[in-house]
Amino acid sequence: MSKGQLLKHLFKIYRGILLASTEKDNEFLSEYCEENFYNVLKEKLKFFEKLGYQLELVEDMKGENNERINPEMHLYDCIIIKGLSIDRKKNMPETNYSVCNDIEDMGFISYIPNYLSDPMNFKNKEQAEEKLKLEFKNV
Q1: What residues in the chain have per-residue pLDDT under 50?
Q2: Residue 130: enclosing H or E segment and its boundaries?
Q3: Which of the 8 DSSP states describes residue 4?
């Protein structure tokens, strides 16, 4: 997938979330938003509704010369994070990881579980190799 295709796809999701927020489409929001983000958004939308606010999405469909203005999108910062699950519930507290971000300028951060550096986890060479093989595939 090219960078342009990725940006276009992400913009569609972003726009869909904006539209779903105005329409109170919780099914769409729960499907396309990360769970923690969805829960916070849902509570904020309920709060605004109680205050009598109404969300409205306004788009300029005419633009210049009666042609719609295409959105301009850029990726300014890209970071690869390794060692964590996209499901936050499966991750341990941050204090249980050694965070290796010495190459953050290159766009890479690695979370390594502290128990991997505990020498008591490795009784012999074979056990250590097996444990590392199993664990480091997740790091």
Answers
A1: none
A2: helix 125-136
A3: H
Which amino acid, one-letter code, is at 48?
F
Placement of tokens 């010369």 in the chain? 65
| pLDDT score for 37 | 92
Q: How many CB atoms lie within 10 A of CB 97?
A: 19
Cα gap 10→6, rounded to integer Å: 6
* Cα distance between residue 64 and residue 62, in whole Å: 6
The pLDDT score that the predictor gives to residue 101 is 81
3-state SS, one letter per residue, for 19-46: HHHHHCCHHHHHHHCCHHHHHHHHHHHH
Largest CA distance in the chain: 74
| pLDDT recorded at residue 61 | 66
Structure tokens at 107: 């766009």
What's the first-to-final CA gap in the chain, in angstroms? 24
- Which residues are registered as beta bridge partners of 82? 110
Distance of CA 45 to the CA centre of its chain: 21
